[in-house]
Amino acid sequence: MVGEAVEADRPLHLSLGHVGLGGDNTVLSLAVAELAYQAARRAAIGATAPIVTVSNPSALPLAQDTLRRAYFTRERIVPYSGSQARWYPSNSQTLAFAAALTATMGDDRVAGNVLAGSFGPELALVLEQAQRRRIPTIATSTSLDGQAVAYAMADFPLLGEEVFAAGGYLGESAGQTAVVVTLDVLRWLLILGILIPAANALSDGALLEAVVRLLEGR
Q: How far apart are CA 87 and CA 15, in angstroms?
C-alpha cells in the first residue's frame, strides 16, 4: 500500500480515530501511534507526505510527533510539515468525524487508509466511501461495533491485539520483537496459571461436585 502511494505521488491516510492521551485510551493511543509511525516512516521517502487525522485534541501533538519522527529517521526533516496532522473536532462515535474522513479521501486523493484506534459504527460510512473509490483500507477498532464493521467491510481488518504488535511486525529493532515474544510468554503463563488449579480441583472431585450442585439448584 505504501509503495503504491509513493509511486502514484498520492498521500497515505492514517487515522487514530477517537483515542487520546491522559485517559483510559492512553495505552491504545501509543499503540496506534506506533503503527502510524511505522507506516509513515515508509511513506516519508515519497514526495507527498502522509496524512494523520484525529478527533481528540490531546492526540494532535501525538500525531504531529509521529510524523516528525518518521521524517527524522529518514533524515528528511525539511519536508516535514505539522499541518499534515489534522484535528477534526467531534464527539466519540459521531458521524461528523466520519464525514470529515470521507471528504479527506476525496479532496486529497489518498492512496490508502490505515484506520486504527477507536471507531464506532460510523466507520461504515468511511469504509463504504473507500470501496466506492477503490481505496485499500486496513481497519480495526476497540469498539465492538466498530470492529464488526471493520471485519465486514475493510480490505484488511486487524483482529484483537494485532494493533499492539504492530511495532514487532513492522519494526526493525530487536527490542520491539522481544516485547511481542514476552507478551506471548506471559499469556501462556497466565493460561497455565488458570488451568493447573482447575485440573487439580477436577482431579479432587471438588469441581465436579460444584457443577452437580449448580445443576441441582443447590
A: 10
Helix, strand or coil, per DSSP, at residue 115: strand
Which grid cell sits at 150? 471493520
Q: Distance of CA 31 to CAs 23, 78, 164, Å?
A: 14, 26, 5
Characterize 135-161 residue by residue with b for buried, 16 or more Cβ atoms within 10 angstroms of its Cβ, and e for exposed.
Answer: bbbbbbbbbeebbebbeebbbebbeee
Residue 200 CB burial class (10 angstroms; 0-12, 13-18, ≥19): exposed
Nearest to 179 by CA among 164, 161, 191: 164
Separation between Cα atoms, residue 115 and residue 140, nearest integer Å:
6
3: cell is: 509503495
Nearest to 39 by CA among 67, 77, 59: 67
Pairing of strands 12-17, 51-54: parallel
CB 54 within 8 A of CB 16: yes
Name the pTM for this structure: 0.78
Q: Which residue type sits at 127?
A: L
CA nearest to 50, candidates 58, 39, 34: 39
Q: Which positions ≥6 away from 2 have C-beta within 8 Å? A: 12, 39, 42, 43, 112
The 10s digit of each residue's pLDDT in 155-209 is 999 887 777 777 777 776 666 677 777 877 888 888 888 887 766 666 666 656 7
How far is Cα 49 from Cα 30, in angstroms, rounded to an integer? Answer: 21
